[in-house]
């Protein structure tokens, strides 16, 4: 029998979830990766992201925290925690997580983040979008608009459309994300 690597299991999980939308099957692949390497930051964050999409916020938060215990400058981990806090309408907490993530941008050592510019800009844009969301619903709309129209596009020029979409969504839900 040929032994599979962590990278192969994670590639399988991304395909199973991203292409076929099968979260539970994807979790099985991630769990196999974690059985080989329990402190693999990418695997921990991927498991958290899938759990989050499956509406298991408590477990998602736990796995992001485990990833951050191994690598305190995982921008993906901080982004995940910010997204969960925003979903819970804990905007002050979301802003704290975002600030940690922003501080980590120059120090995140994970290869995907340092070597893949598309991924890097997409993740930074998602972090900024979480910040804009928290600012907007904390009655700091001018700061959110500035972030989405000036700061974000300057930092992530490949993601301008993402920022425009976020601002459009916020403007359609001016008082509450539940509108």
| Structural class by secondary-structure content | mainly alpha
Number of strands: 0
What are the segments in which pLDDT stays under 50 over at least 5 consecutive residues?
Answer: none
Main sheet makeup: none
Global outline: globular
SSE order: HHHHHHHHHH
Q: What's the domain count?
A: 2
How much is the average pLDDT? 95
- How much beta, percentage-wise? under 5%
Report how far the terminal alpha carbons are from each other: 54 Å
Q: Approximately how much helix is present in the residues?
A: over 70%
* Number of distinct helices: 10
Radius of gyration over alpha carbons? 17 Å
What does this structure look like?
By secondary structure, the protein is mainly alpha-helical. The chain folds into two domains: 1-70, Tetratricopeptide repeat domain (Serine Threonine Protein Phosphatase 5, Tetratricopeptide repeat), CATH 1.25.40; 99-179, no CATH class. Helix content is 75%, strand content 0%. It has ten helices and no strands. The longest helix has 20 residues, at 117-136. It is globular and about 55 Å long. It starts with 5 loop residues before the first helix and ends in a 7-residue tail after the last helix.
């Amino acid at each position: 029998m040929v032994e599979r690597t962590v990278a192969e299991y994670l590639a399988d999980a991304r395909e199973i979830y991203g292409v076929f939308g099968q979260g539970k099957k994807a979790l099985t692949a991630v769990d196999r990766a974690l059985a080989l390497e329990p402190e693999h930051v990418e695997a921990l964050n991927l498991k958290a992201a899938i759990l989050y999409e499956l509406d298991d916020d408590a477990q998602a938060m736990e796995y992001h925290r485990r990833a951050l215990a191994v690598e305190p400058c995982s921008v993906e981990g901080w982004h995940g925690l910010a997204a969960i806090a925003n979903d819970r309408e804990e905007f002050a907490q979301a802003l704290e997580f975002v600030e940690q993530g922003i501080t980590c941008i120059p120090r995140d050592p994970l290869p995907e983040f340092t070597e893949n510019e598309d991924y890097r800009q997409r993740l930074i844009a998602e972090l900024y979008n979480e910040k804009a969301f928290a600012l907007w619903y904390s009655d700091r709309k001018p700061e959110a608009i500035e972030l989405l129209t000036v700061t974000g596009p300057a930092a992530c020029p490949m993601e301008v459309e993402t920022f425009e979409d976020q601002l459009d969504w916020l403007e359609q839900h001016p008082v509450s994300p539940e509108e």
